[in-house]
Design brief:
about 5% strand; single chain
Length: about 220
């Protein structure tokens, strides 16, 4: 049975799109649930981050509040841990888990964790390939220039590789976070149930992102 371009795209991408919607719903549900559960010690996300950073010899890493929801990140370029307002100010299990996860990235940076270094090196290439790759592909495809189209595919494939590398980076940061929260006495082991649900749900968003990137590359290849 012949499938047109749109039909082929839906056939290849629909599973990834469904996974993406499910992952986003899961992280929002888990975060909203445990953002209402206060930690036993009452520490805010900013307090948790500062405590973990100092305990790991990272007093030079700044903890700052940033805009957005679930926009938390660690920037290795200026050694800044950016926490969204709900996490920075909140004293919930969700806030503690997210803050600890981001400190996990700071510790990875300090220890020169291999996958994180590789991901950081790839950022400029990925930023270029994410917008230039599709442009070159469709120019080559519509003007019957296969060489140009394949250059576009290769550039965009870097986005898929980047997404795949991101998965172990994020899983390792979550693993570090869970261990640190208990070992440092920040949370009781019984409180980790909520942290597990929030961070495990977040991990699925990275899996969904990688799946979507791979499906796009596969679509381009099949068109050629």
């Amino acid at each position: 049975m012949y499938l047109g371009g749109y039909g082929m795209y839906l056939l290849i991408s629909l599973p990834a799109l469904i996974l993406g919607f499910w992952a986003q719903a899961k992280i929002k549900s888990s975060y909203n649930k445990f953002s209402k559960v206060r930690t036993s010690n009452g520490m805010s996300g900013a307090d948790v981050a500062r405590h973990i950073l100092d305990a790991n010899g990272l007093s030079d890493v700044k903890v700052e509040q940033t805009r957005g929801t679930l926009s938390d990140n660690y920037d290795p370029r200026n050694k800044t841990l950016n926490l969204s307002a709900d996490v920075y100010q909140g004293n919930s299990i969700a806030s503690a888990g997210v803050a600890a996860h981001e400190t996990g990235h700071a510790i990875q940076h300090k220890e020169s964790y291999g996958p994180l270094k590789l991901r950081s090196i790839m950022i400029p290439t990925v930023q270029l390939g994410s917008w230039l790759g599709p442009i070159l592909f469709f120019m080559g495809y519509f003007f019957s220039n296969d060489n140009l189209a394949w250059v576009g595919v290769i550039l965009f494939a870097g986005v898929a590789v980047f997404s795949l590398i991101t998965i172990p980076v994020e899983l390792d940061a979550s693993k570090r976070a869970k261990a640190i929260l208990v070992n440092e006495g920040i949370l009781y082991s019984s409180e980790l149930t909520g942290v597990n649900q929030v961070l495990d749900a977040a991990a699925w968003t990275y899996v969904a992102s990688a799946t979507q990137a791979i499906s796009n590359v596969l679509y381009y290849v099949l068109l050629l």
